[in-house]
Amino acid sequence: MSTMKDVFGKATRRFIGTCLALLLTIGTLFSATQAMATEVQAPVSVLIKFYPTVSEAEQLATIAAYGGTQTKEIPYLRIRVLDIPAASFDSIIDQYEADTQRIARIEYNHVRKAEGMPADSDYSQQWALSKIGWESVYDETRVVPGTAIVALLDTGVNASHPDLQGNVLNGISYLGQVNGQTDLNGHGTAMAGIIAAVTGNGEGIAGVAFSGVQILPVTVLDANGLGQDSDVIEGILYAIENQADVIVMAFSNPTFSESLQEAIDAAWDMGIVMVAATGNNGSAEATFPAGSAGVVGVSATDQDDALAASSNYGPAVFLA
Fold first, then answer.
1. Could you please report the per-residue DSSP string of 203-217?
2. What is the structure's pLDDT at 209?
3. How far from chain centre, in Å, is Cα 163?
4. Do 110 and 229 touch, CB atoms closer than 8 A?
5. pLDDT per residue over 263-273, tens digit each?
6. 260, burial (CB in 10 Å: exposed 0-12, middle 13-18, buried 19+)
7. How far apart are the C-alpha atoms of 249 and 303, rounded to whole Å?
8. What is the distance between the alpha carbons of residues 248 and 239, in angstroms, rounded to a whole number?
9. What one-character-per-residue DSSP string does 46-103 give?
């Protein structure tokens, strides 16, 4: 059984429990003294996975006995998402970690951050397409419309955008919107444009997939481009259920999650291609999900085929 104590000592867990939101947002580890100075008594979200032999009733009874408020359930992976009060975080987690008969895994519900907003406004500025020989296949490849579905896990997609007309399916939002077809940040719409902007319509940009691809919007990031693993996991499972061929995840966090990997493994088993951004911190530190097994981690290059100055590099990169 993996435990949170394997990674964090008890004293460290105490201040992380009170400052988790701040720490994950800025991606920097403060010292204990610095963290306590910015203490926020917000509940800490965790993912708890039960063993297959534990019944539904036993799971609920365990939560009632040890504490925490369930905010979500992911039945496919036997994961429950709990909010644990920061003030009693240590004592509650200690009880869950001690229960090796029922609890298979406990993890923080990590926050992942959207990466890189492109600024291209028309084809003449899309030098990347010529770099990959896009013109040599445009108008020559015969593709039946709608034959591939790309699940875009992001901030949603503005389906009314004139350069995406007809290429956005009804999706889902795990953040309170209806069908993923709105975007309060713009990041998801920009990603959708790179993938499937209408080509040859005299406006906007040309999508890499100029024919035969539809976007399935799955909103897992909020208006600030931040989202929790629990929503990302559900988004991957939704993509599986809706027969996506590709899953795109342009967000990252330097912390590995076994629960997220488990969802990725399920998509891999279904033959889904998964692509993720490595990040834009100019760092060699591995990020996830780009560095997860089964995911194509992508870094950025410039017009001279050199590593872009801000792009991450290193072990999480599969393709540049």
1. SS---SS-SSEEEEE
2. 83
3. 25
4. yes
5. 999 999 999 99
6. buried
7. 24
8. 10
9. EEEEE-TTS-HHHHHHHHHHH--EEEEEEGGGTEEEEEE-GGGHHHHHHHHHH-TTTE
| 249 neighbors 275 (Cβ within 8 angstroms) | yes
Question: For the chain, what is the radius of gyration of the CA atoms?
Answer: 21
Query: Does residue 278 contact residue 290 with C-beta atoms inside 8 Å?
Result: yes
Question: Is there a contact between 137 and 170 (Cβ–Cβ < 8 Å)?
Answer: no
Closest of 297, 302, 289, 226 to residue 263, by C-alpha: 289
Residues lower than pLDDT 50 in the chain:
1-2, 5-39, 117-120
Q: Count, in order, helices (H) and strands (E) of the chain.
A: 8, 13
Cα separation of 301 and 270, whole Å? 31
Output the DSSP codes for 167-199: -B---EESSS-SSS---SSSHHHHHHHHHHPPS
| Distance between CA atoms of residues 189 and 120, nearest Å | 13
Residue 83 and residue 60: Cα distance in Å, rounded?
14
Q: What is the pLDDT of residue 140?
A: 55
The confidence score (pLDDT) of residue 18 equals 29
Query: What helix, strand, coil percent values describe the chain, rounded to 5?
Result: 30, 20, 45
d(CA 224, CA 284): 25
**Residues shown for the chain:** 320
Query: Residue 114's beta-bridge partner residues?
Result: 251
| 168 DSSP 8-state letter | B
Q: 10 Å Cβ neighbour count for 207? A: 22
Give the pLDDT confidence score for residue 22 in this predicted structure.
27
| Cβ 319 vs Cβ 297: under 8 Å | yes
State pLDDT tens for residues 202-237: 777 888 887 788 999 999 999 999 999 999 999 999
295-298 and 273-277 strand pairing: parallel
Q: Cβ distance 81 to 47 under 8 Å?
A: yes
H or E stretch covering 275 = strand 273-277
Question: Which residues pair with residue 316 across a beta bridge?
Answer: none
Alpha carbon separation from 231 to 13, 171, 192, 218, 263 (Å, rounded): 23, 14, 19, 10, 11
